[in-house]
Sequence to fold (171 residues):
Amino acid sequence: MVNPNSTEELLQLAEQGDLEAQYHLGICFSRGRGVEKNLDMAAHWFDAAAKKGHSGAQCSLGVCYLNGQGVKKDENKAVELFRLAAEQGDAHAQYCLGVCCYFGLGVESDESEMRRLFELARSQGHTSAYFALDEYARGVSPYGGKNSADNVVPEISFQDNLAHFQFRPGR
Fold:
């Protein structure tokens, strides 16, 4: 079993091709946990695990592409990676893809697809999807609305084993 607290062990295992170690090392580099924060290295290790089909790494690499963190910003590539992970049932990837559908990031804006994806994520206990759907059901546009001056677009950061959204005003 991989010990995510030992970066030396993670690096050794990741270099040997261990999928979980590659993903967890990406997390370490994205957060500066046990190593100096380095988004280029985070993207490198997420990419290594994503190519082998790790849904968490695919989602995290999508986060990198969506924000241009460690890679050149590419919303289309982010959506492609979110889709791969979402198709594997990754709740956070379903949520991320839903946000992209809502704002038209890398895809056409599609609120019905956003709702479908948020429902999938919510059914797995994804809290942000739950709250976004609740607001939407009450007639309140999630994130302040796509065209309003007080629009709030998700900005992504990394935390532990899960990329999550932080919110900031504007786009």
